[in-house]
Amino acid sequence: MHLAIDIGGVALYVEELGNKMDTGAISTPHGRLHLNTDDPAGVGAKLVEHGAKELTKMAEQFWGATFGVYQDPFGQIWSVSNSTNTIEDVPKKLARKIIPFVSVRDCSAYMTFVTDALGAEVVYPPAKDPTGKIMCAELKINGGIIMVGDHCGEDASKTEASMTISHEVGKDEAGPLAKSFKDNGGEVLEEVSMQFWGQVWGRCKDPFGQPWGLCEVQTGPTTSNEDMAKDMEIGAKYDWRYTWAVEDMPTVYCYGAMSTSEATGPAISEETNKTLPAAFAGAAAAGLAMAGPPASAYYTWDPSPGGTTKFTCGPSVAGGGASALMKDVDGDDNGLGVRTAGGCKCVTTLHTGPYDQLMKCYKATFEWVETKGYESRMPVFELYENDPKDTPPEKLKTKVCIPIVAKGTGPKA
């Protein structure tokens, strides 16, 4: 009937469909918001007054509480009950760990509803995308926190509300947790990555159909509203396909030949297919240890018609064993050897999809660099996070890294 699960010090309540506490009217798994109040009958009447449907009649239950269940006009399920405990604000450090995020078709109207019907207070004003849709707003209801936003992505066509459980975790914990979801029968809906608002975030669905948002505690400076607006403008322009982060990238030691080809996707792919097998074979013969995903580094790039690029591609190897095999990128020796990239501040983004669509990623990223007041430097480089031999083209993952400096302190790429 009822089970409380401890997640990071916060109780998540679950129950089985069809039990005596169930709504009876809802036969599929759903997220229900529970409101403890000293006046459950009054709150229930207020919900009905504002268009909610009573699913379980408000009455004294066998476990001693007065309890009722409602479906608001937007489709979200609420249970209302009195509590034997004194109602106090949830401690902030706990309130931030598990937060319900309700997505609706008309968030502005929904905020009006919960304000009028439940006395909600706006804690964080709505953040809107360039189309005017509310991406996120934070409300406080009876001491508890709730996040709301307009439907987007795969939920955009839904008419009823849907709820995601937002789970705040520590640094570097979201990725392993998403893997755990997948390993235990769940599904990764949106890969864990750095988001434009400055937080690492991803979205999963458990085997029972409940969506979860995984967000790491934000340790760096908060993204300003101005910067967030710029990110949203560029993000919307490119169909929300990319998010960008500035990070200190370690030096990449790439073992391969130096190639020159026309600066187009097909020409680069053709040259890469010629040289890559020898690069892996050469690294193995030299006894070099792999130190990361395979890489490509572009040292020159002429975007004019007929322009060329000078680049290397191959395995990323450990720097300690690579020193004797280092090659001068400006030298005449274009044979197999170790050449470097990174070791500096870069803007990074993850491209998911075929390699022949990477040019769109670069276009978006260079626009982001310019908008943010940076200049790019060479070499730009790519890290290939999965293998095209056993990965469908639409699921290939490429981390694009562009070295940056403050505007006016270095040449553009």
SSE diagram, text form:
Elements: E1 3-7, E2 10-14, E3 32-36, H1 40-49, E4 53-60, E5 66-71, E6 77-81, H2 92-95, E7 98-104, H3 107-118, E8 121-128, E9 134-141, E10 144-150, E11 162-169, H4 174-183, E12 187-194, E13 200-205, E14 211-216, H5 225-237, E15 245-256, E16 258-262, H6 265-285, E17 290-301, E18 308-317, E19 337-352, H7 358-371, E20 374-376, E21 380-384, E22 397-406
Parallel strand pairs: 3-6, 7-10, 11-14
Antiparallel strand pairs: 1-2, 4-5, 5-6, 7-11, 8-9, 9-10, 12-13, 13-14, 15-19, 16-18, 17-18, 17-21, 19-22, 20-22, 21-22
Helix pairs in contact: 5-7
Keyphrases for this structure?
Multidrug-efflux Transporter 1 Regulator Bmrr, Chain A; 413 residues; alpha+beta; 7 helices; 40% strand
Structure notes:
- The protein has helices at residues 40-49, 92-95, 107-118, 174-183, 225-237, 265-285, 358-371, and strands at residues 3-7, 10-14, 32-36, 53-60, 66-71, 77-81, 98-104, 121-128, 134-141, 144-150, 162-169, 187-194, 200-205, 211-216, 245-256, 258-262, 290-301, 308-317, 337-352, 374-376, 380-384, 397-406.
- The chain is of the alpha+beta class.
- It has a domain at 246-406: Alpha-Beta Barrel (Multidrug-efflux Transporter 1 Regulator Bmrr, Chain A), CATH 3.20.80.
- The strands form four sheets. It has an eight-stranded mixed sheet with strand order 8-9-10-7-11-14-13-12, with helices on one face. Strands 15, 16, 17, 18, 19, 20, 21 and 22 form an eight-stranded antiparallel sheet that branches. The protein has a four-stranded mixed sheet with strand order 3-6-5-4, with helices on one face.
- Residues 84-91 have low confidence and may be disordered.
